[in-house]
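An instance follows:
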Amino acid sequence: MKQLLLLIENPRTYSRITRGLSDNTISGQLTTLSDVRKWLTEHEAAVALVSRKFPDLEETVSLLERFHISVTFFEGDFLHAEAWLHINLPLDNEEHSEKNVPPATLDIEVVETISAVSGIEPVAEAREVQKEATLADESNLPASSIPTAQVTARPNASGRRPLVAPWMQTPMSAPVNPQHTSNDPEELIELKEPASREPTIEEVPVRSTPTPPAQVHYVEVQIEKPVYVRDTVPLTIQPKIIVVLGLVRGAGSSFISMGISHLLTRSTKAHSVLLLEHPDQEAYLYHRLDVDGLLTDGGTFVSWLYGDLTPVSRDGVDLAVLEPNWTPSESGIYSEALVKYLYRQLRRPFTIIDCGMIVDDMVLSLADEIYLIAPCDPMILMRDSTIERFSVLMETYQPKVLANKWTKHAKVTKQLFPTNATYVPFLSPDLTERAAWDNRFITTYSESLDLLSSLAQLVDVPEEIRTGAKVDKPSFFRRRKR
C-alpha cells in the first residue's frame, strides 16, 4: 500500500500535522536525505509534503521527481496541510473514512448527483435495465452481453454499492469488444464484397550493371578530448532564523535584536534583514524606532497579523513590529500564525525575532540560532527563579549565551556563564540615550562599532552574501587536455 511521505524536519510541526492519524498511512519522521533514500527503497509513495526548511531541499526534490512522486511544499499553513492530507489519504484509512456516515447517505448523494446532471431518474432507469435483463433469454446470449447496471462507486458503510445505469457509462467503464453489436440475427448479417479490386503491380526484370569495388582511404585525424571540470560556486546562503530570548525582564533582548539586525544590514543588500516582534508581548519597537514617522502620506500602519504588512524600513532594516496599543495574549494563539508568516519570509537571508521573555516552543524549534541574553547583575543572577529558568533553557534549547552590560568588575564563573559566552560591554548612557531620542539603531554611530565588536563577530556574514549572489548552482568549465 502506498503511503504519504511527510518530510518535515521540525518534530513539533510534524506532530501537529499528523495528530490523530494512523501510522500505517503516513511515513515516519525523516530528517535527512539519507533517511529519505532508505525509506524509498523499502516503501512506496505517490505524493509527498515537503517543508521549505528541509535539509538538502533541492537534492531531495530531485530524488522524489526521479521516483515520480508528486511534491507539495509546506509553507507553514497547517490548514493547507490538513486539506492535503484529507485529499491524499487512502480510502481505507480509519481516521478519515466515512465510518460515521449513515448507511443510506452515500447512495442518496450518488443518486442526487446523477439526477442533477442528466435530468433522468437514475434509480428507475436502473430498475428498468435490470427488469429487461431478467426477461432476456440468458441461454442464447453470452454472460458479458446481458445488460446490467455498472458499479462505479465505492461501497458505503452498509456494504451496498450504488448503481449507475448504462446511459451513465463512460468510455472507460463501458464493456470492451462486445460480442453483439446488432439486434439482427447472425444469419442475416452478410459481408459486403469490396467495390473494386486493388490494382496489382507486376515485377519486370531489370538488367543490373555490376558496381566497381569501392576504394577505401584511411586518414589519421588527431582528436583532442575535452575534459570537464566541475566547480561548485556558492551563490547563496541558506535562509536563517535567529531568535533572541531574554533570561529576565529588562535583560536587553530588544537592544541586542536591533544591534544584530543593523550589523547584518550593513554588510548585505537592502531588504535582506527582517526584524520581527513576537505577538505575545507588549509593543516596544513601534515607538522606539518611530514607525509613525516612516509612514508616507499619513498612512495607517497594518500589522502582519491582520493581512499584508505595511512596508516600513529604518536604516535598511525591514520592520514587522506590533501596533502601539497591542494587547498580548497569554494563550499562545498566535504561534501557528507566526510560523506561517516565518515560512513566507524564507526568501530573506535573515529574520530576527525579538521574543523578550516569551518561550514559544514551536518558534524556538524552527530557529537556526537562539541567543539567550543574560544581564551581568549579581542580584538578578543569584535568584533561584533565574537559576532554574537558565538551567531549563540551556538543557532544552542549547542557546548561545550573551552576557549583556558586561564590565571589568563582573566575576565570570562557569556557574553563571558557559565558557563560550559572548560578552557585550556596558555602553555609556550618553550613547544609548542619543540613539533612543534619535529613533536610530545604536550601531549607526561609529563610536559604538568598536565597543560592539564582539557582537559583530557573533553574526559574521558569509562572503557569499556580501558579494550579492543569488542562486546556488554548479558551473561547468570546459578545458582542453594538453
Remarks:
- The mean pLDDT is 74.
- The CA atoms of residues 156 and 308 lie 45 Å apart.
- The chain has three domains: 3-96, 107-168, 240-466.
- Residues 3-96 form a domain with the Rossmann fold fold (CATH 3.40.50).
